[in-house]
Design a protein that fits this description.
372 residues; alpha/beta; Rossmann fold; 2 domains; seven-stranded mixed sheet; five-stranded parallel sheet; 44% helix
Amino acid sequence: MIRLPAIFFAAFLAAAFSAAAAGPILIGEYASLTGASASFGQSSHKGTALAVEEINAGGGVLGRPLQLITEDDQSQAGQPATIVRKLISQDKVVAILGEVASSKSLEAAPICQQEKIPMITPASTNPKVTEVGDHIFRICFIDPFQGTVMSKFARENGWKKVAVLTDVKQDYSVGLAECFIRDFQAGGGEIVREQKFSTGDKDFKPQLTSIKAARPDAVFVPGYYAEVSLIAKQARLLGIKVPLLGGDGWVGDSLLKVAGKALDGSFFSSHFSGDDSAPKVRNFVGKFQEKYGVAPDDMAALGYDSAMILADAMRRAGTTDAAGLRDAIAATSGHDGVTGKITLDAKRNASKPAVILTIGDGGFRFVKKVEP
């Protein structure tokens, strides 16, 4: 039997270790690819996947390709926690991207925090999400800012009396309504009626009848696109002609398909406008349309930015180890994203501008950008 010198054996082990280290960097993603919030998840995933494709085409990160492991939470409570546990314990991911909906992020975040795996949500705006712990990040603005933006916009347009219709089943909707009401009243506005509904409801006529009787100048509806589209149609059928106002939860491919012209003349706050003339945005829009055959919305743009920020943090950290990666994400400053310059503050929230869009002619039109 031939015995190899110890030096050769050591070299063999080193080569084997190097080959293993050169394998893909595993990143987890959980999103609502099916179910009630599928438009959010599909759009965010497409943006994330496009970013990973671009990163790998450019040589990957730290000499290794990224491998995105995506799981569908089916828009259902209970699924995010199960999925995140699987991604961490079985797939051994180094970081997790997702979710869009705040309630889903709030379910998964405690697990990521406990396991010390960085989690970046592209679009969950409820302030409680990052309060879970120091491994939880977001690259979107938060509801206090979004609520203030829409409150000031309402007052600037002379809408002094506003009714509010809130989805009590969504942390996003409840938090955004609270922020809007607080700022609107502090600025001298009057909330003439508050009504509530639940995700999945189809009939909003009782709430809308009560709102109509209060004779508001506008109605703030901080819900998600599926219910907002029905609310708009029923509001117009009941003779409510005032503008509806909302937040980024309105963005969804079925919004205008269902609402038709019922939302014409309404306004909502968002993260991104495809009308932006910045070269980086034009490049992103072009690549997204080429790959998917449709224009990107803000969820796609945020998904794209979340993956790019994670890759940038890995490069700056020089490692995929959780501790170094967490610190590098936290140090993100002035990242030039397609949704604007992104800087994470001490609470791991993004300081960045919002845009206000209006609806008309079968689409969204840019109104203004509001800096933080």
